[in-house]
Structure prediction request, 587 residues.
Amino acid sequence: MRRLLAFLRDHEPGMVVAWVISTLGLGVVGLRAYLEEPRFGASDLLYQSVQLFVLQLQVLPGRTPWTLDVARWSSAAVSFYAVLRAGSVLFAGELERLRLRRLSGHVVVCGLGRKGHQLAQDFLSRGERVVIIEKDEENDSLLAARQSGALVLLSAAADEAILRQARVARASLLLAVTGDDGANIETALAARRLVREQAPGRTTPLRVLAHVGDLQLCGLIRASKVLTGPEPVEAMPFNIHEAAARVLLRDNPLDRERMGPGDPRFVHLCVVGFGQMGESVAMQAARLTHLANGSRLRVTIVDRKAEERRQRFLGRCPGFTEVADLDVLEGDVEYAEVLARLEAWGQDPHRLLDIVVCFDDDRRGLACGLTLVERLRGRRVPVRVRMSHEAGMSALVHGSGEGRWNGRISVFGMLDRLCTRESILGETLDLLARTAHTDYLRRKLAEGEVLGTRPSLREWPELDEFFRESNRQQADHIPVKLRAVGCRIEPAASDTGGFAFTPEEVELLARMEHDRWCARYLLDGWRKGPRDDVGKTHPCLVPWADLEETYRDNDRAAIRQIPELLALIGQRLVREDPEVARLQRAG
Prediction:
């Protein structure tokens, strides 16, 4: 039914024109048969047929042809339809206000740019009720949003009066995605004030996501906790580059081949173009690439200003070099010296090389990616290219099929794929993270610790975003651990039990989890020392061999919990057939 209504809405103008023309045709044919007067020409009959639409044709004596009867009633229906449509336009504002007064549990999208439009359409397609706040009356997406069923309010999103009208205090989600970072943060703060005034007793918190396009500013706002407060509101900034990097490395793992203990290989990530997207990819790789053989991730910046960008990046994240090696390849990717170096790295059997092209310009990015693919022909080196949207240049890659490039190049970062409920809200990831944290709390309380005595010993709704994100990263790392022991995830049938890691696997994966945990803290600026959440020191920032057994048990418990976590999302663990896995790697 929903598809039928969407079809009728999209084709309404053409269908109305066809309706009018067919009614006129039936009227002409019917009048000719009824009058049987040769003195009436075609123009006279057409004129009389037009009178049907203004209900001016009098009741006719005698028996009328069926065609004329159909035309008379059809024209009346057309006129009635026109009146209704005109009324809906004239009183659209009043109708929208009436609908707004009854809304609750809806989604408010502030800003109808590319991100806002895509998000609104995704929520509408899921049957959600959506209110859009957009200040530009000439925005080309307004008509499509209204036709899709969204309520539209024309105003600046940070205006408290318009947020009241949108019933933000009764909404379930607010997405501030205008092109102005300051306006997005101001909107989030205004929403908090409204909830405090209008709905202080909410049982389910309003979730607020404010897009901050500047990566450094996003991190500073997150660390400052300016968006947190006592109100029943979960507000946080998000950055589309971080979201893209998370999706990229989830779908295209750098450890694409199993690397067990003693494996001599290491992962090498080359980032071409080290702007905000490049930095996000490097950071996500440093969070995830903690492998069974203990090898360090190597990241190489390929950029015309590589050393300058490296120094700026390390100024913001000095802990990066404690987690991964970071070097530079100065110059354009088309330079002969740069290409020769990449080709040599691609021939190294001990190196799993991945190249990620992160230019803002789609045309330049695709040209660079195709150049690399051609130069590295015969080498098993994946090339990932950042593209801004699904249509356009990315169609060349998707359409290559089994042709010249044969899957050696792929695209990522398209807003069409990123601006969805799951990508932005991460509800599946949050379910895993929340469950892992609940289990951690249960163990700590059983050991005699007291709830609330440390920032990490709080229930999820009161938990600081730093610790929430740490739990999300623990969930992100699950597939890396599973590849290390030759396991994979598949949809579960009714029976999800029966799987258990061996003691040796538990020990190996617990060490990997500790390495990941250390990286999380080091990347955020923590150092080894007595536990101090303000001064950012922690005694557990040591190698596994030096870690106290009590803390090792925490990591082991987290590993044993993995099958239970996956069962929550309808998945189970199975062991890969070694021969099948070997053939897949060889292919």
Summary: The two ends are 45 Å apart (CA to CA). Residues 583-587 have pLDDT under 50 and may be disordered. The chain has 26 helices and 16 strands. The longest strand covers residues 266-272.
